[in-house]
Amino acid sequence: MNILIISSSTPVRGGVATYMEILLKTLKDKGYNAQMLNILSSKSNSFSLLGNNMLKLTRFLSGFDTLFKLMLFISRLIIIIRTRIKCINKNIDIIHTQDINSCNAVYRFCRKKHIRLILTIHGYLSRGDSSLRAIKNESKIGKYVSIQEIKAFNRSDFIITVSKQSMNRVIKYVNKKKVAVFRNFIDGCLFHPLALTKKSALKKQFNYSHDDFILLYAGRLSSAKGTIYIIEALNRLDENYRVKLVIAGDGPEFENLKKLSLSLSLSHRISFLGDIARERLITLYQISDGFIMSSVSDEGAAEGAPMALLEAMACGLPIITTKAGGINEIVSNKNICLITEERNSDSIAGAIKRLYDDPLLRSELSANALKEVDLNYSNHKMIDFLLKAYKGVKTIDKS
After folding, report:
1. Across-strand partners of 35?
2. How many Cβ atoms are within 10 Å of 305's Cβ, its own excluded?
3. Coil, strand or helix: which one is 228?
4. 172-200 tens-digit pLDDT
5. pTM beyond 0.90
């Protein structure tokens, strides 16, 4: 079976990029001929420069209806041209798209070539770009994106969602028989805990002392992620709590959060790393003492099933999180994390104190998180479900 995985997102780091890379690697390990295609090639310096600025361009153009639609049209044109080039002299059986834009771009090509088309929904809205998801539904662009979304639902042969919440939205528009929930998955060879001796040594290399309690946040810095409440919570802890907050990620709120940190005199307790390489992020997971997310549900889109949360679990980190969106499906009724209220800095501060003060609790949460990942989020287990979907879609008669 020949599979082409496509995203209209630019080749930058993030949850969707991680999903695609793990999917590609696992399919190849299983002996399948799988390839990956982004809107722009990361091998070209000029393309990489454009890719890194694409999100800024998107946010700027979102205020201009016609220009925004033109940008989407151009991006689709790039996708279809690169797809045609990729498919020359290759018998592609399935194209697995990761967002509505790439799905709508290639569906005519798929029909013409009798290629089956699969769409994965990674969030409440299926476009992976958070700047698009934040657009209010009542705006012209919001309505346009919603129309494109419904078109993609109906044009796909099969739809995968990463949470039940997303599935419930999709089945309003299509037959529920063509929709299934497949959990995100983690490569345990990459994401795993370290022995305590190695962890202590690495901490020193990162200029942290043994007594520093490293609390990690990894992800996009947007209002929907609620990172502001983590910083406000840290401000509620006295200096006896040697908590060092490490924020790994970039986004529209990056500068605002840095300014808030300065205004609260927290610069000595918070490190803003920006967008970092995968290898360094894995090391950060492994030397950290806890992981925190404070996503909120009402910022234009809810969480799907955050890869960063699963990565932290796979590395054995005790976790503090809200139950926003699909997070609830990961953590509900399972003793794998501390749950805080959304938009509540006091609730978050209380959870940080509890985690800091109770090493037995940290050990219990860590052990439970590792078991949960192995049971429900292993890439080799989840890929078997996905392969069944591929084979089922491949046999559909589209004549």
Report:
1. 4
2. 27
3. helix
4. 999 999 999 988 888 888 899 999 889 98
5. no
